[in-house]
Structure formats: C-alpha cells, structure tokens
Amino acid sequence: MSGVSRRTFLRMAAVSAASAAATTLFPGIVFGEWVHSDHDSSDVQWNKTPCRFCGVGCGLLVGIAGGRAVAVKGDPDSPVNKGLCCVKGYHSVQALYGKDRLKKALVRKNGTLVETPIAEALDLVANTMASTIKEHGKDAVSVYGSGQWTIPDGYVASKFLKGGIGTNNLEANARLCMASAVTGFLTSFGLDEPMGCYEDIDHADVFVLWGNNMAEMHPVLFSRLLDRRRKKKGVVIIDLATRTTRTSHAADKSILFKPQTDLAIANAICQVLVENNWVNHSFVQQHVSFKAGKTDIGYGLEDDFTFKDEARAVDLQDFQAFLADYTPEKVAAYSGVSADDIRYLAALYGDPARKVVSYWCMGMNQHTRGTWINNLVYNIHLLVGKISQPGNGPFSLTGQPSACGTVREVGTLTHKLPHGVVMNEDDRRMAAEIWKVPFERIPAKPTHHTVSMFRALDRGDIRFMWIQVTNPMVTMPKLKRYRDGAKKEGRFIVVSDVYPTPTTDIADVILPSAMWFEREGMFGNSERRTQHFNQLVAPPGDAMSDTWQLIEVARRMGYGDLFPWSYDDHIREIWREYGRFHDSPKHAMAPYEVLRQAPGAIWPFVNGRSTKWRYNAAYDPAASPGSDFDFYGKPDHRAWIWLRPYEPPPEIPDAAYPFWLNTGRVVEHWHTGSMTRRIPTLHRAAPAAYVEIHPHDAERLGIRNGESVRLVSRRGEIIVAAVLDGRGQPTVGQVFVPFFDESKLINELTLDAYCPISKQPDYKKCAVRVEKV
Amino acid sequence: MVIVVTVCVMAAAVMIVGETLRSSRSDHDEQGRYPSPTSTRKPVTDLRHAESRGGMPVFAAAMVPGTSRKGSHSRSLNQYYERRAYAGAPPAIPHPVDSYMNRSQRCNVCHERGGFAPKFNAYTPITPHPQYTNCLQCHVAVTEETRFVDTDWTSVPAPAIQRSALPGSPPPIPHGLQLRDNCLACHAGPAAPPKIRTSHPERENCRQCHVPKATQTLFDRASASE
C-alpha cells in the first residue's frame, strides 16, 4: 500500500481529535509535541555557542533550564547567520537526548560488548596502545579524528601522537572532505584557507556556485545570497552543477555540465577572458606567477601509489597557448555546456563593473582532480584581479564545524604540525620547543593519509586505531575492503562517540563522549572564525570530552608531563599554548578572553581586530605596507596561476555499468545522520536514503516512483527506493544517493580513487547499473 | 455551552475516534510517544497516490485540523504547538509537499497572504517572515510518523498567555520576536488560533500597547546603580 497506511491515518486522526477534544474539556492544558519539563519559560537562560553541525558555523543561543537544553534561537549578534538558522540548527540540541546515548564505556569480551567502568576501559586502551608499540613499533598505532573535533581535541591528539609517542599516524576525516581545498590553497597561494569572509555576500553582484547545492547544504549562507539579491537590483546567482536541485530553482540561471568537465569549463572561461582581453593586466603583472605541473598523474588506486608534483615556471604566453585547447566550442562538445553559456560566465567574471564571488564545496573537493579544479577557479579570479576585496573572491566552503579550526589550523594530518609541516626542520623545532620534547622525537616523514591508513590497517601494518567523533564505517569509499580490514584478527579498534554507529559495531572498546556544549571547546568555521563555547550542561553518565579521554590515556602511558593542566583550566591553557604556534600577523589567534565574549573572531586577529580580507594591504596587517596586494604566502609574494588540463575520471559509465553515481547530503541530515536521525523532526522529514533517477531512465527501465531498485557497482550493491520527482533531479544517465542512512550504505559502491595531490577520494563519480528488484 | 455544542458537532466522529484511540493506544508508551525500534514501513515518497484515491489527501485530512469556511472552530493553540519541537521552534509542514513545491519552494504563493485553501479545507497560516524564501531550510515535511530511536527530549511548556498586570490592561508579549515581529501574521485572521487571536486587528501598531516581557528580575535600585 502506497502513501499513508490506513492505520497511520486513523492514528493521526485520533491524536488530532483527541487533543482537540481534551482542550475543549480541559481548557488551559496544552498538549504539545514535546514532553514538558518541570521548569517554565521564565527559567530559561540563553547562552551562545556555535552550531554543532556544518562548517558555516552559525551562532546559536541555546536555552538551558534545569540543567538541560530546551530550546534554540539564532544569535542575532553573530555576523555569520544574523539570527537565522536552518532546521538542523533549530533542532540541534535534541541530538543530546536520543534514548540510546552512550553513557558508559563498553569493552568487547568474548565477542560481546560489556559495560565497563571508564577508568578500566581507559587502562585497557593505554595498555593496548603501549603493548602494540612494543610489539610492532610506533607506526603500528594510529588516531583517526575529524573536522568535528574541537580545537583542543585536535591539539591534544597532535601533541600526544607527534610530540609524545613520536608517530605521524594522525589523520582526520577532513581528508575526505577538505584536503583538495587545502592543497588548492597551498599550491595557488602558499597558505591555507579563504582570503575573504562571509561579508563578501553583502557586497557581491554575481554568485557562481560550482557544484554546490547551497540551498540545502549551506542554507543559512544561501539565504544571505537571496537576501542580497532581494535588496540589490541586478544581483545574479548562477548554479553550475551536474544535477538540478533547489539551488538551481532559486538561481537566476542553472547550467548543467557532465561530471569532471568542470576542469574544461574553468579553462574555457579563462580562454574567453584572455581572448577578449578582459584580463586585469596590471594585477597580473604585479601579483601573479604562472606555473605548470605534472600531467597524467593517476588516481591512487594502487596500495603503493605515490605522487609528487613539480612546479615549472611558465608565462602568460605559455598559458595562452595552453588555453587553445579550451575554446568554448571545443569544451561545449564534451561538457554539455553551450559555448554561449561559457561566454556568458566569462562575461560575468570579466565585467569590471561587477563583483563576483565563487562558492564551492564537495563538488570540487571530492574530485580525482580536486586540487586542479580548485587551482582553476583561482586562475579565473586572479586573471581578472577579483580577489581579496569586499565582494570579490573565490570562497571554499566547508562541511564540518571545525574542519578549518581543528584539522587545517591545528594540523591533525600526517604531514602537518600546528605550525607548518613535519618535513620542515624549522617547523619541527618550533613544535619541539613549545611542547618541550626532544626535537628528534617528531618524525620528519609523513606516514599514511586516510585511505592509505585504512589500507595499512587492512594489511596489518597498523594494528591499533583510535577513532574519535566520526563514522568511517559509513563514510569510507569502497567500504567493504576497509570494514573487513578493520575486523581482522589482531586489530584493536577504539571508538569514542555519543551513539552506536556502524563504526562502534566494529569496536573493541567504545568510550562515551561528552558532546558539544557538554564540555568547553572551540570550533573554527569556513571564514577563519574561531568560536568558543562554554560547558552548559553536564555530560551523561561516564561520558568524557575527547580532549580529556586523550589526556587520560596519554597520562597512563607516561606522557603526563606533556599535559600538566587541571580539568578546570585545561581548555584555556591549551588555547594559550596553541596560540604560540600562530604568533605572527599572518595567523595570530584571538585571546581566550576575547573568544569567551565575542561571537567569534576571524584570524589573523591583530591589534584587537579580525582580518576580513587577507593579502589586501587595506585590511591585512601582514601585507607589506605601500602595496595594494601582497600574496605573502609564496616566496615570490605572488599568487600562482596553474596550467591544469582536463583529464578524464578513472571510471566512466560503460555498457555494463551505464550510470554515473553521485552521492551527497540532504538539508535535514548532517554527515552520517548518527545525530540528526535521532532528532524526531529531521527523521520524519527524511527517514531513509533513496536513489534519484531521471524519469526518462526510469521509464526505459520500467521503474516506478517508490519502487525498490538494486544499484550495483564493481565493488558492491544496495537496494534502495527510487525517487523520480524528488527535491533533486539528476540528468539522464546519472543517479544520486544521499549517504546519511547506515542501513543503505552507498559507500559499498563508491570507488577509492583519489586526487594524487590532496589524497582526497572522489565520492561524486563512479559507474553503476540500476536493476529492477 | 461551548462544550455541549462541540460535542454535538463531533458526536459521530467521537464514536469512531474513541474506537481508534483504544486500538492505537498500544502503539504508544505512557507519554504518548512512539516506541522504539522504528516501524519498518516504507517511507512515503510519493503522496500523489494518496491524493488520487479520493481527492483530498489522507495526510492532509489527518494533519490539518478542522478549520472550515462554514465552521466556527479553527486550529487550536494545542494544534499550533503540536507542529513544534519546543515553543519557538520552526513548525513542521503538516500537508504534503509535492515535487514541484519541493524544488521550487514557492510556499509564499499561499503563505504570504493566507486565505482559504479548498484542497486542505483549511485557512492558510500566514508566515511572519515572507522575506525569507528558502523555506524548506527551516520547515520540513512529515513524510512518516516514525522515530529512528526514541528520545528523552523535554522542553519547557509554552509561555502562559493573558498575563495582564491589571484587569483589562494589555497583556505583555510572552515570546521572543525574532523572525516573528509581524504580530498580525499569527494573531489575526481566520488561521490564527482563537486563543491568541486579537480582538482588534485593525490596530496595527501592536507594540504601542504590548511590550515584550524581557525579565523576571525585580528592579533593585541599589544593584542597578552599581
């Protein structure tokens, strides 16, 4: 029976009628959707915190009554969201109160998880870590964290692993979502993270969204775009994407391109800019260098794959010759975008009277040429000099609340340190000095990036993995290999989390974590804004912050002198110590006392002020005085335009697997849904994953709306309901599946190919077939 | 008197409802919540099937209260709060969202001005913030009544109303005004719950007389001068 069952209908009718009747009979009694607490609305105290979910980093005011969170408002003082939230933010605090919240440590004994005192579980983690190091060496233990780690979590993990144990086996799931953005920034500018900020929205005339369904994924910022368009005549939003979404409908123009051809489109835009002489020559002459890198760089599908790029100096003439392959007509032939549309886009970027912001997120980052496409969009902005000014700039959005703050700034990646990289002796010396550890202890060689780390676990090179605040048994591509690997005999997996997930299912020890404002911490959002939150409620049961779990284990292993702080002051002390790594006008962080008061502060925070536009001498104290722009991240003080060609993806639909598979999110759910699915409003709106199929394909295959279909790739298969008229519509020959549903694991099908420079996998393109069940 | 009239009007319905209430009670725990684990029913992905069976979608019949053009009763304050996770939360959408609406988000076609919606046999609630058009950013549909896992969520009751300081004096505003500064959207017109409907909608300068109740704290001259 399709639609609402009769039983449900009657039940809902009965509930409605019953509450209506009850009100009539008992006036004054309110039967709401929620169970009433013993407190009333006058008891509610409002406290600021950044949102727990995405990288936008909205400021929330959380209402606390009787030691529990009871309501949410958008913080009107937050420059990020100015009082507006999305449905996840408004219901975010309900994520604390799922019935199956992990409150006690669980230890696997004879195959079953047994409730264990937290101290005993921490002893076991420390002892196993120590014995694994003794037996198999330091590089047999690893920690895998996330962009949902608070800044203190990541800092302690880095100090413990790199400064204490002396291994670079530290990674975070931001490798799966932000790594290409990082390498894109580093290769083009020499320093990570955007030059502009969200305030660009209030000044821009044109917004080009590159493969970014912003209406659902960054809804609060998208509402700011719509607000800008409402208030200023002539503002246009262009949705450049591979499928039609709510963003396409709200945009002034929707341009659909074939997967992977964004590389060619970006080059074609540059070709038109150069051909029409729309180049800002004085900007290019003063501030830009041209570089070429290696081509035909592979896809990282082999276990022993390695790649190192090399920059070769070239010039504008070489760039012009390179662009000859990317005339609008040539690119139109394989991108599916008309030459007219390419010229239109170039005209928007090239019009000196219009300010242009480009936005992107996973579409460009989860890409086997992710670094390249990031470079190519920077090329466009650099050619016309539309960068680092209010309303002009490329802007890489993030998916997690502290992918920037923790993973990128603290550097919880194998090659990173809180300042710089492990390969650089000066950076290692700085870390050793601040951490007061022997310089020799910090290894100079990176070990494993995320995919490689899970491959090493499968092979047995890594024997111990501690996973915090993330759910790799849902998110790893080509999931079966890595799940089977993690379950092998002789592997010890510790998982710190707040709810049971497919990842806690494979754990030997589960540590219950304090969530969000159950502890004190900081997140860093996409616009370089650091936001502090106080502990507002007590964590349940034995739950403990990830920071403190790491400290407890480190102390048990004899590294107590690295973590001399008391529980009461450890967040402040960590912040002060961490701040020493960034003590320069290029990256100075706001003092702890400022963060406690302000709705966040943007780094570089110099002389009591946030730096909103980096590299622009009018705003950035690190730019050399007297210049207009100073791209000081590179030794030549110039931004680099890279000659990056179109190269095809590793797997393309063929006769056996004729569809492109694209994966992603929905507005209701965040990441793997382990929190948002426990929020009733969000679950009721989006209870299960589905596959979006174009009606023409469905008709050809005889598939009706709502019917179950089998999706099969060379790696795995799932059965899922088909949606022909959902909120998004893929093009003919493409299907889309959201990844939040742990009972419909789309990553069984995805390919573990990655960008050779960033090592970030591509979740947006692989080949599948669709079968009627 | 009101009770008697209501009971008469609902007489037939109450007989049926009583029966279904008893049969549906077993699905709830004592707080009226849905049990865990969740139902294995398929998600409702296409509500047009429901619609095509008999004109009015069953979903809408169940979820939209009996506001009618002829009848005198509108949605109650309870029904108003039933759509919310706490007082002040964005309400869920009680009617089906068809595929066009789901993509285009043209909700304001009806919700900016209000009026009678024959399709749902109800008056359309008016949004207090029509300037926002990415509507489904905050308001989401109810595609099925299940829970992934049960919840321990509780919140404070909705603020009490009619707390005038003096007999007959204008009551203060008991709620926040963020995104809700157009008072008439919720306090006037046929979609407004009668309990909070103003008797004088023609006076549009509402906050001339009604002011937010911002604090419980008594003014203390000594500490105020500190």
Key descriptive features of the protein:
heterodimer; A: 773 residues; alpha/beta; Phosphorylase Kinase, domain 1; Rossmann fold; 7-stranded mixed sheet; 6-stranded mixed barrel; 26 helices; 32 strands; disordered N terminus; B: 226 residues; mainly alpha; two-stranded antiparallel ribbon; 8 helices; 3 strands; 27% helix; globular
Would you kindly provide a written description of the structure presented here, covering whatever features stand out?
The complex is a heterodimer of chains A (773) and B (226). Chain A has 773 residues and is α/β, with parallel strands linked by helices. Chain A has 5 domains: 1-32; 46-97, Phosphorylase Kinase, domain 1, CATH 3.30.200.210; 105-177 and 401-564, Rossmann fold, CATH 3.40.50; 180-395, Dimethylsulfoxide Reductase, domain 2, CATH 3.40.228.10; 659-750, Beta Barrel (Barwin-like endoglucanases), CATH 2.40.40.20. Chain A is 32% helix and 19% strand. Chain A contains 26 helices and 32 strands. In chain A, the strands form 8 sheets. Chain A has a 7-stranded mixed β-sheet, with helices on both faces. In chain A, strands 26-31-27-29-28-32 form a 6-stranded mixed β-barrel. Chain A has a 5-stranded parallel β-sheet with strand order 12-10-9-15-16. In chain A, helix 4 links the parallel strand 7 (141-145) and strand 8 (170-172). The longest helix of chain A has 20 residues, at 6-25. Chain A is globular and about 70 Å long. Mean pLDDT of chain A is 95; it is low at 1-32. Chain B is mainly α. Chain B has a domain at 43-147 and 174-207. Helices cover 27% and strands 4% of the residues of chain B. Chain B has a two-stranded antiparallel sheet with strand order 1-2. The interface between A and B is large, with 98 and 90 residues.
Short account of what is shown:
Chain A has 773 residues and is α/β, with parallel strands linked by helices. Chain A has five domains: 1-32; 46-97, Phosphorylase Kinase, domain 1; 105-177 and 401-564, 3-Layer(aba) Sandwich (Rossmann fold); 180-395, Dimethylsulfoxide Reductase, domain 2, CATH 3.40.228; 659-750, Barwin-like endoglucanases (Beta Barrel). In chain A, the strands form eight sheets. A seven-stranded mixed sheet of chain A has the order 6-5-19-18-17-7-8, with helices on both faces.
